[in-house]
Each structure stands twice: as C-alpha cells, then as structure tokens.
Amino acid sequence: MTGPLPQMLSAALRRWTLLLPPLAAVLLALVWGRTLPNAVAALAGLVLVGAVLAAVHHAEVVAHRVGEPLGSLLLAVAVTVIEVALIVTLMVDSASKNATLARDTVFAAVMITCNGIVGLCLLLGSLRTRVAVFNPEGTGAALATVATLATLSLALPSFTTSTPGPDFSPTQLTFASVAALVLYGLFVTTQTVRHREYFLPPELTDRPTADDQHDESQLPTNRETTTSLVLLLVALVAVVGLAKTVSPTIERGVTAAGLPASVMGVVIAMLVLLPETIAAVRAARRDEVQTGLNLALGSAMASIGLTIPAVALASIWLSGPLVLGLSASHLVLLALTVAVGTLTVIPGRATPLQGGVHLSVLAGYVVLAVSP
C-alpha cells in the first residue's frame, strides 16, 4: 500500500523512534538517584515503555540488515543485557532482600518465552495458514539447550546437599556458570556459522533468486543501520536506568497489593521481554513463525546462559545469599514446559491447539505466581 497517509505514518514513526531514546536518556539524568513522587514515577514508567518500543524498532532495523538468524540473536542478547543489569543493580541495593530475584526473573523469562511467546507465534501463525510450519532441527536444538540450561542452573540447586537450602556451593555455582557460557557459545556457533540453515524458515531455500535480489534492495543503508545501532544502545541504557529508578515504586505497589515478593521477578521479566514479544508477534503475523521461535527460545537461552554467570560473578561481592533452586510447583511447571515443547517441536508443524496449550501453561504459572 502506497500513498500520502502510509508515508506520513512511516515518517511519524521514524521521528518518534529517533527522538524517544535521547528523551529517555535526558529524563534518566534528571531523576537518577532521587526518590520519585508517584506522578513522576508514572511519567518515568511511560517513557520507559516508550524506550522499550523504540529499542524494538531499532533492533529490528539492525536485524533486517544483518539477516536471520543473526538478527534474532542480536535482539535476544540486547534484551538480556537489560535483564542482567536490572537484576545485578537491584541485588546490589539489597542483596539479602533480593536473594531470590535472579531465580524468579530467569524462571519467569523461561516461562514467558517458552510458553507465552512460543504460544502466541504458533497461534497467530496457524490461524493465518491453518498450520504453522517451522524447522524442527534448529528449534529442537534450541529447546534442548534451554531445557539443559534450566535444569543445571535452576532445578539442581533444589536437590544438592553441600549447602543448606536451595543454594549452590561455590564449586557447584562455578560449574553451572561455566556450563551455561559454554552451552550458549556452542549454540550461537551452531546457529550462526555451522548449521545456520537449521534456523531459517523451511521454505527459504526455495525462494527464487529474483526475490532475494528484491530483498537485498530493501535493506537499510549503512547510515540507517549505524544510527539505529547507536539509538538502540542509548535506549537500552535508558531502559535499565529508568527501570532501576521506578523499581522502588513498583516494589511498594507489590507489597501494598499483598502479592508475593516473587512477583517482582515476573514484572522485570515482562518488561525486558516486551521487545522480544512484539518482534515475535510481528514476525508471526507476517507468516515468519521460525523467526518468532528463534526469538523466543534464543531469549530464554540468553536469559539463563548470560544472567546466571553474571549474578554468580556479582555474588562474590554481595553479602546476601544467592538462591537459585526452584520450588516444587515451579519444578512441575518446568517439566511440563519441556514435555509440551518437545511434543510441539518434533513434527515441525503446529495447529492452534499447540499454541493454546502453551498459553495455558503460562496462565497456570501466572496464577501460581500471584497465589502460590
């Protein structure tokens, strides 16, 4: 569709995404280190959401330039940087109070990505084409890596006996951190170098050369890509800073509502995964289900593979404990997620039923988070 109206909307979107990251950075400089009244905190929250949406746009521009699956990987890593920074900064502020924050946030990220984003992608993709088709080789490898990382980092601490409670001993924590980094590195190498074709849509290899040339002509210019990369970094810094600034207000709201402290981890995960969710939903609506699954499982993997080593390193100078072990109900949900995900991935095809099943698992997690 071409004409004056779409061109005006496109120009307005470009101006909005160009202006919001610097605006968010300026607001961060004004409110940093201050106790915010509720009205100012609400304004900061709105700017924070806008900065997240701007980050989505600029990450998609860069991702379009570098292509799949590197583009999905770039967005996953960018979002995980936000998550790691938020967890570490909040734990530094109050290590004993936020001892379970890393566990709660990482597990919430796994449930949101593996059930929420995956479910939405399968549901939207299959509603448009009756059956959503994806590459089982790459998607299965990603799910297996996520399941292994989650088990080694979040399930095992609940069963070890070297230390009391659901904690790792220093040796065990070192092993889990190194294993997470190694597995994540192996996956990135597999996804982007050795077996890149496993993470591309099944029909991509059948696309005619003329279409490929057309796609090349639509790529962003080097100048546009560089601008988006810089603004993406500015937006990410602003998101981290503003989230830290408004987090005391969110914590007071959670306490006033009588909700469990673990809800704070769910809030953080929902915030940092908003870019991934929007990007994945857009991809699914364009019949690019594989891209959405790459985003979902890549985010889950990056969330564990980068966050656990980061908080393990931070625990060296933090005075409080680092609790990583999941509760019994969360272990059941993790096992159910892996089982359902495996049955979904094996055929390489999914109907709306599979999407609904994943979303129902996420709904169960949310209910138990609010009412354990």
Automatic annotation (TrEMBL):
The keyword Repeat does not apply. It is found in: Membrane. Residues 40-192, 228-369 form the Sodium/calcium exchanger membrane region domain. One of its GO terms (cellular component) is plasma membrane. Its main location: membrane. GO terms for molecular function: potassium:proton antiporter activity; sodium:proton antiporter activity. InterPro entries: Alkaline_pH_Ca-Antiporter (IPR052946), NaCa_Exmemb (IPR004837). Keywords: Membrane, Transmembrane, Transmembrane helix. It comes from the Bacteria. It is a multi-pass membrane protein. Residues 201-217 have a biased composition (Basic and acidic residues). Residues 201-222 are annotated as: Disordered. The chain crosses the membrane at residues 43-63, 70-91, 106-127, 139-159, 171-189, 229-247, 253-274, 295-318, 324-346. Pfam families: Na_Ca_ex. This is Ca2+:H+ antiporter. It comes from Kitasatospora kifunensis.
